[in-house]
Amino acid sequence: MAQRKVTTIPATRTQITSMPITEQTKRKVAGYARVSTDHDDQFTSYEAQIDYYTNYIKARDDWEFVGVYTDEGITGTSTKHREGFKRMVADALTGKIDLIITKSVSRFARNTVDSLSTIRQLKENGTECYFEKENIWTFDGKGELLITIMSSLAQEESRSISENCTWGQRKRFSDGKVTVPFKRFLGYDRGPNGELVINQEQAAVVRKIYQLFLEGKTPSGIATQLTREGIKSPAGKDKWSQSTVKSILQNEKYKGDALLQKTFTTDFLTKKTKVNEGEIPQYYVEGDHEAIIDPDTFEMVQREMAQRNAGRYRHSGIHTFSGKIKCGECGSWYGSKVWHSNDKYRRVVWQCNHKFEGDTKCHTPHLTDGEIEEKFVSAVNQLLKNRDSIIADIDLVKASVYDTDSLSVEHGRLSDELALVTELVQKAITENAHHALDQREYQQRYDALTERYNVTKAQLDAVTEQIKQKELSRAALTDFQKALRSRKAILTKFDPEAWCTLVDYATVYSKDDIRFTFKNGLEIKS
């Protein structure tokens, strides 16, 4: 048998470890620096890290300086938004980096899963990482074990920091300390002590939004108008969105109050937040700062919004009369139609949307804006002649029909019953957990208590809804009274505000028979 000959082929890409480096070609080395806040002292550390790694790498003759990748003001619990980090990993995977040097495991990532998966990905591609503080080289045999331990410690540190921050935030909430993202919050500036101070120019826009909504505009229509008028959004953008307008209309801070802890963070690693639906306490601060919208107007907007969402028809803010005129023959709503759209006789009329649909045609007439406006003025003036007696009648209706005293007593009784049943269920569960009971008897008792709970809960929900509806109707009548009192003189021309605040809808039977149903339920034929 011929003698075997073994020839050594020198390594050209020797793995870099804590052992002396003897490779024949220069290693491509990069540094990674990250600070998690933008505070001045951290900024100094950030600049120092860049300078340190630049000089440290360039000082080695056997290393080729690739660069220092950085992330400033970014958390380390996730790699999702760390653009410098992601760019560095991408360059390493394409062969541009052989070694990554960073200060510590916590600088690399405080998330154990992210840290290990990235290190393994780099390792498979031939890129090593060196963590100075812990003296860990990832190509070393014990490197991954140490990385796992150190990453877990870093993750726990993040958890501790997050819990401390959360505790501090909730303590501020419980103390009633109000703050807003001033750069993206329309209407207020930060005062000398961090308080909310009205920005009069922006406040005018907020008041305009509330006024347009009460005049019948939808959030979408308001957004379109504000965009068309060149008014900047809270974020400084040219285009407004429907959701932005809606959030302004629903934000209690505009009436001087503040609801704190509307959302909360569910996971300190992903930073995922959710709407607080009773999982943790909330705090309501009344009279915290100067209001832009008076409380009565704010509450009127909330009621109008609730009425539109739960109304008998889809509210449309395209025109003042949209969704407000009903056909007396088929019950459908009138819509606007354009006649002679391409010639000098062009005009807009209102007619039943189902006038020419189906076998049976509606005979109700079409109407022009002027005809509707004229009939409305006549009906309102009839209403105003009897203003004092109507206001007095409304007081009687509110005191009798919409009184909630008896319902409130029943609500209290059912609430006490529900609390009692809940306590009995809990006692039964605890007793079964600590004592050897007959399971058949226990199950029967548990089922009976559960049924009792469900019945009581259903009754309580029904009473709660009745109270809510009565309070909503009573508040709507109060709004109507207020609008009626503000009308000191008869109308001489059509008033859009009077239309929106006084009229529920109009029903058309003929040109000479249009009946206006006002928000107090009174119908007047004009």
Indicate the topology.
Elements: E1 27-35, H1 40-58, E2 63-72, H2 83-93, E3 99-102, H3 105-108, H4 112-124, E4 128-131, E5 136-137, H5 143-174, E6 188-190, E7 196-198, H6 200-214, H7 219-228, H8 242-250, E8 258-260, E9 263-265, E10 273-275, E11 283-285, H9 295-309, E12 325-327, E13 334-339, E14 347-352, E15 367-368, H10 369-385, H11 387-400, H12 405-434, H13 439-485, H14 496-502, E16 503-510, E17 513-518, E18 523-525
Parallel strand pairs: 1-2, 1-3, 3-4, 12-16
Antiparallel strand pairs: 4-5, 6-7, 8-11, 9-10, 13-14, 14-15, 16-17, 17-18
Helix pairs in contact: 4-5, 7-8, 11-13, 12-13
What is the compact description of this entry?
The chain is an alpha/beta fold and 526 residues long. The protein has helices spanning 40-58, 83-93, 105-108, 112-124, 143-174, 200-214, 219-228, 242-250, 295-309, 369-385, 387-400, 405-434, 439-485, 496-502, and strands spanning 27-35, 63-72, 99-102, 128-131, 136-137, 188-190, 196-198, 258-260, 263-265, 273-275, 283-285, 325-327, 334-339, 347-352, 367-368, 503-510, 513-518, 523-525.
